[in-house]
Amino acid sequence: MVNKKLNWNLIIILSFIALIRPIMSMLGISDIIGQPFASIAATICITIIWILTVLIKQDPQPIQTLLAVGIGYGILVILVSGILSPILAGQLQGPLTNPLAMISVLTTNAIWGLFAGGIASILMKIKK
């Protein structure tokens, strides 16, 4: 196992890039494009961006990096939901109202990051 520090700047940037999915939903763009296509397409595009970024950066720990990105995105989604739901809906909604939902959000996005990191790792090995 490689014993190097994670690139936290990269992790934060990639976590914020993934916020395009909930922003598309909040702005009604996903409804205009059509569900579930919009969410699936956004997820695929974000995953490709994550993978290409760690490949271009030649990140020595793509699995750990993208796992951290998935968790970081999950934390951001929970926070954004907690901030915006009272403003947009008039009351707190979303994962902050249910601890099990928070665990679900974090777990789902950690798996997403782990999956993307696994693909990136395989591609890096093939590239060598």
From TrEMBL:
UniProt keywords, alphabetically: Membrane, Transmembrane, Transmembrane helix
Membrane-crossing segments per the record: 7-24, 36-55, 67-88, 100-123
Protein name: Uncharacterized protein
Organism per entry: Compostibacillus humi
